[in-house]
Design a protein that fits this description.
globular, alpha/beta, about 15% strand, four-stranded parallel β-sheet, single chain, about 40% helix, Rossmann fold
Length: about 140
Amino acid sequence: MSQIRVLFLCTGNSARSIIAEALLRSMGGPDFDAYSAGTQPRGINPFTKQVLEQAGQDSPDLRSKSMDEYIDQSFDYVITVCDNAAEECPIFPGEPRRIHWSFTDPAAVEGADAVKLAAFQATWREMRRRIETFMPVARRACARP
């Protein structure tokens, strides 16, 4: 089986899609080739970096990217992780399966740093559960003889 290519899209590519990319890279092993991008990239949120470091999943090559970098590439899955990105998602070559996971933006949480960090940790946990469910389904769906 060749690698399953997955692109996670969000508006800012600062939290949710970056977390999803890092998780799938870590959990998916050689079966998956994970990327993330934003419709309007804003740079990686410092709390995103902190949560990934705490989980041992920080990757120095993670960066906030525009979906324009990937517009001509083929993917098996394009997964939007926020409602705005779902509405703005372009058509990618190769007819990838499109999935939408609606996650609340942890960067929108206001309050003390501890409250903000807790929101990012909750997003990481929820995203991890979703990816754990997604991986075996994607492996079966993309099994090639």
